[in-house]
Specification:
alpha/beta, 8-stranded mixed β-sheet, 6-stranded parallel β-sheet, 19 helices, 14 strands, about 50% helix, globular
């Protein structure tokens, strides 16, 4: 179908990819060679279906010069770039600031807290400002430009436009005449007042934005008077399972997890970040569910890990919830993840905010009805709500979450009906469908 294989670049928005690696408790080399649990790798696979090669650029302290790795699951290249030298000085300053703040307050700077509201607000501004400065200083734009030209990239796609790295990349792209695009993955505000000074200019000079969420499209148009012609609504792509898991497979999986066949199972999976993912709300709702069905075998299956894993464990113990099975690790094998999801009767994502979450779509792809909170991207996933396989509830409402889950637990026929609709809707997020749209935008043919 495609006679040539053009190449595009992708770049993450973290100061350092080291942050991701540390949070998932994997090695840097394992990330480069084997990790697949990221929308970036789904973009890579989607573009491959449309005949486009990709190079993923990441910034790390683990290398002293541009170093290339082969990403074994996709065959794509990951180009690891060293930070700018000045970033080392910034890191030292930041580290000393954190120590001084902690010595004075007994708190971490990450969770700014102060009984005086004006002082707390000022500290938040300072924290965000320091963060933005770090991102600007971390990006080695001269090395990135050289590597992009070496790879003959026709465009660069940045993770997030409300992020300092986007500003750096747009300025670099203007110098080397390279189109710079950015996508939306959940950051719907500038990180600091410093970034506000650059963001509008960057948006004017960028080639376009890829946004899945209709709500976010409306915000960008209103806040920045951004032209609709430069906005491309493209869903995040997902590698869908090729077939359903058999009843035997379901029974086997439940047995492996210590869950009986008669148990009603609700599943959640993702990064364990309590505030964003609403896991505290989920635990409160689950407590209510257990009270509603005191004689029913129930199980809440949690799949995933993250920086808040110790805190989540404490909350589970404090609520004395004993019918929870938690796979406290990151599952990179998507086939295994699908099998775990298939062990459940329904899926829930009670997030407080999202960009465009793929986790519910992964559940929908294995015929699970879903209960989701009304955050960015959800009404694009379920535009017809029950007609597309799920129920949408307000965020931060444990009682509403409990009622929606109970409604599905009570009605086997409804679960079956919504599950079939969910699987059908999930096809809209396939690699092939999204890959063609991505090629059209980034390559123009």
């Amino acid at each position: 179908m495609f006679n040539d294989k053009p190449t595009v670049g992708l770049i993450h928005n973290y100061d350092l990819i080291d942050e991701v690696v540390a949070g998932m408790k994997i090695t840097f080399r394992d990330y480069c060679e084997n990790f697949v649990g990221s929308f970036m790798f789904n973009y890579i696979k989607a573009l491959q279906t449309a005949g486009v090669d990709s190079v993923l650029y990441c910034i790390t302290t683990q290398v002293n010069e541009a170093t290339r790795f082969e990403h074994l699951p996709t065959g794509a290249t990951i180009c690891a770039l060293p930070t700018r030298r000045i970033y080392a000085g910034y890191s030292l300053f930041k580290s000393n600031s954190l120590k001084a703040y902690g010595a004075q307050t007994g708190q971490t700077f990450k969770d700014v807290d102060d009984r005086h509201q004006w002082r707390r607000s000022s500290l938040v501004v300072v924290k965000d400002l320091i963060k933005s400065v770090g991102t600007y200083l971390a990006t080695p734009t001269d090395i990135l430009a050289r590597e992009l030209q070496r790879d003959n990239c026709l465009a660069l796609l940045c993770q997030e436009y409300e992020y300092a790295r986007f500003d750096d990349c747009v300025a670099m792209g203007k110098k080397i005449n390279l189109p710079i695009y950015a996508c939306f993955q959940g950051l719907d505000r500038t990180q600091s007042i410093l970034e506000s000074a650059f963001r509008r200019r960057s948006l004017v000079n960028c080639a376009g934005l890829i946004i899945a969420s209709s709500r976010e499209i409306a915000r960008v148009k209103e806040q920045y008077s951004f032209p609709a012609t430069k906005i491309h609504q493209i869903f995040n792509p997902l590698s869908l399972p090729e077939s359903d898991h058999s009843v035997h497979s379901l029974a086997t999986t439940r047995a492996e997890l210590g869950i009986s066949p008669s148990t009603r199972v609700v599943v959640w999976h993702g990064r364990v970040e309590i505030a964003q993912k609403g896991l505290d709300i989920l635990l409160l709702a689950w407590q209510q569910i257990c009270q509603i069905y005191p004689n029913q075998e129930l199980c809440l299956l949690l799949i995933g890990t993250g920086t808040d894993a110790p805190k989540l464990k404490q909350q589970i113990e404090a609520l004395n919830l004993t019918n929870i099975v938690w796979i406290n690790k990151f599952i990179s094998d998507r086939t295994l993840l699908s099998r775990y999801l298939s062990a459940a009767d329904l899926y829930t994502l009670p997030s407080r905010w999202e960009g465009f979450p793929l986790a519910p779509v992964e559940a929908m792809a294995v015929k699970l009805p879903v209960v989701l909170t009304d955050v960015a991207g959800i009404k694009d996933i379920l535009p017809g709500e029950t007609a597309d396989g799920g129920i949408i509830i307000p965020p931060e409402d444990a009682s509403a979450l409990a009622r929606a889950i109970a409604k599905l637990l009570d009605d086997f026929d409804l679960r079956q009906k919504l599950g079939k609709r969910a699987k059908q809707r999930a096809q809209c997020f396939s690699l092939q469908a999204i890959g063609l749209r991505m090629r059209e935008v980034l390559i123009g043919k």
